[in-house]
User: What shape does this take?
Amino acid sequence: MNKKISILIVDDEESVRDSLYNWFIEDGYYVECAENAKTALSKLEFDNFNIILADIKMPGMDGLEMLRKIKSLKSDAIVIVMTAFATVDTAVQALKDGAFDYITKPFDPDDLSHLIRNATKQITLIKENETLKERVVTLENVDDLIGNSEAMKKILHEVENVSQSNSSVIITGESGTGKELIAKAIHSNSSRRYFPLVSVHCGALTESLLESELFGHEKGAFTGAMYNRKGRFEMADNGTIFLDEIATISSKMQVELLRVIETKSFIRVGGNKEISSDFRVICATNRNLKLMVDEGSFREDLYYRLNVVNIHLPPLRERKSDIPLLTDYFIKKYCTSMNKPLIPIDNAAKKRLEEFDFPGNIRELENMIERAIVVGNGKKIALKDLPLEKNISTSSLESLDDLEKNHINLILSKYEWNISRSAKALKVDRVTLYNKIKKYNLNPAK
Assistant: This one.
């Protein structure tokens, strides 16, 4: 039992109060008693009891009148009425006045325990709903979308507009530009904000794993499927599903994804029951999907189904005026999380940051600031605290392959060639990273 759940017992019979008090105390609840409605209402002025167990027939104010007063003060109060004179009219009136349920005397111990457990579940749901609403209010402010450049103002305007619709969205841009943040902002300002935002990183999963992840599976569908499992589309019912790295999915998955988006229904792996789900789709990619369509590697019908609205995030090197704001934001973020006083950045370091091309975009700047706060031991972040001298300016890199090679090398160096951590940072699977290492002939010595 949950020891944090508190119960107030209101009954004019001392024997009833004593027996219920001892009963609930043994089950681990916090319990208080009141011999009449007036005493109970006085207690409720000072203590917020989770469950109120009240007798209907009491001298003075009866249980139904007390119930109405309690509900007027706290509409979500859980009140269970007790009576030895149960009639249909009494029960109906109690429920109409807002009672959670009623129980008749003499009590069946199992029935009462079951009723209290149900009330406890209701309290948990109320608390979870309040927590969710608080989280949504925080997200609605979209404080993580930092920048006052013209490019950023345009993006914020697009986010505001597209949030009001249910249209599919594709967010494009290089790795590290903040595509997932934009997806969160769209969801948080939409009519679906009180329901889940479910994220799937498609590039990190094989075809079979992605299929199970998206659609779920039935027990025994494959070796290791020991129980039924909901898929991400099912979890996203009434909410939003965010498919990151959409360009990496196989031709087979493209066909299945198109069908699900068009019908809003699917079948779990190994199952035969059609499951419906009302979801909105937001996708992200750092590749040119239109070019992939022209080359035949991405379905044209799926592309147009997904690309109702396109939001493109420019690389950080094209919005350098936002670097000072982002720098200040990350300094505050990591000083706060590390319980350190705010550390300013000196002018020389600030100037070099503004000149740097950031092949890893905002993610690289964030990692750089976090590292500087961890390793720096001065009163300011100095140039020596920033690993800028270890990086190559993108002005000397002529091709996309050069940019990719340089960025992968930076991430591998940062995580000391830990393949799992590096792949996670790059948002690719381990096999893809190994192939890139082989392609560019990278090794720790280079």
